[in-house]
Design brief:
The chain has a four-stranded antiparallel sheet, with no helix packed on it. By secondary structure, it is α+β, with helices and mostly antiparallel strands. The chain contains six helices and four strands; from the N terminus they run ααααααββββ. The longest helix has 13 residues. Helix content is about 35%, strand content about 20%. Helix 5 packs across helix 6. The protein folds into two domains: about 80 residues, no CATH class; about 50 residues. The radius of gyration is 40 Å and the shape is rod-shaped.
Amino acid sequence: MNWPIDTRGYSQRRACGLVGIDPSDYRYRATKSDDADLGQRLRELASERRRFGYRRQHILLKRQAFEANGKKVYRIYLSERLTVRKRGGRKRAHRLLRDKRPITASFRASRRNALPRNRSLDLVSDALIDGRRFRVLYVIDDFRRLGSIRSSVVPNVSTARHR
């Protein structure tokens, strides 16, 4: 672009017309703004407020008198490789520490039958079609695998809740 201006003596306007660009595009000089302080402040905010994204950090930056629009904050946020950190997972008991055995009720063995008698208990509650609730206690002898059932029908009273 400088060749027609320097060698032929064309004006800037005429040389730009020959090439097909606007003279203001030829004269434009890009200036890179220094965003180091803004990037530093974004990193500090991200370390303080781990769950805040770029939009919330933009609000905090405006409160601290940083002049930057949301698009600029987003561009710097991405260039700093900042992300919203996820929350930690639910704390669960370790698989080996949990006891998988059923609740047992140990009773003394009778003298005539010296076998160990461990029993498991299971309490089940349900409701009939007419709204009456009933409970069933199921007792299982773990050694002999025999079961017995004890049941009761609980009257439907609005003030009492049976769970």
